[in-house]
Amino acid sequence: IVLYFYNGQTKLVEEIGFCESSRSASYVMAEIEKLSFMGRTEQIYFCMEGNIWCYDLTDGKLTTKISWQEAEQMFVSGDHSCIVIKKKDGVYFLNLEDNTSLQLEAGESGEIVPQGFIGNDFVYGISAREDWILQSDGSYARYMKELCIQNAEGEIKKQYRDEETLIAGCSILGNQIVLDRVKAVNGSIQEA
Question: What is the DSSP string of 26-88?
């Protein structure tokens, strides 16, 4: 990957950095399409070889920001300015625009269940342990009673909660969220 700077006044192109990869050009391009972003902090973020890299324009250093191996799940906003990573130790919201991060909390009795992005706002559910239902294969289905939409600053913009039903999941279609709701009756699940 070669990083260039274009000066509009002088109409000159200057090479400012180079990142070597052992993968084919088509593979590298597919990864870069997953994530490539430059924010206000003079740092360029991109995905390459299973990692999210940060190239700092001020000192020319290339560092690994996140390893895909650390992540159980990863979500990238539509404009690539925000990333949410679910790891074993929690769920983290990274705002690449200003290089800030915060850990999302569900309290002691539950966990955050990432769903995706609407624009740069992150959609997630909160699943309380009492709403987990044991499946026949021994795993737990983590149903949610609450769905939240949070912006990059950590502010909850919207919350949805229904005491009568559980949320099994959702689909995000543009600016619309379609909920898959169920009811728990005597330890079994029925459509709502």
Answer: HHHHHHHHH-EEE-TTSEEEEEETTEEEEEETTT--EEEEEEGGG-SEEEE-TTSSEEEEEET
The pair of structure tokens assigned to 160 is 């949805």
Phi, psi at 49, each rounded to 5°? 55, 45
pLDDT of residue 6: 83
Give the Cα separation of 88 and 97 in Å (integer). 25
Tokens coding 81: 């300015």
* pLDDT per position as a tens digit, 106-151: 777 688 899 999 998 999 998 887 778 777 898 888 888 899 999 8
- Bridge partners, 149 (sequence order): 123, 158
d(CA 63, CA 52): 9
pTM for the model = 0.79
The token pair at 96 is 């690449």
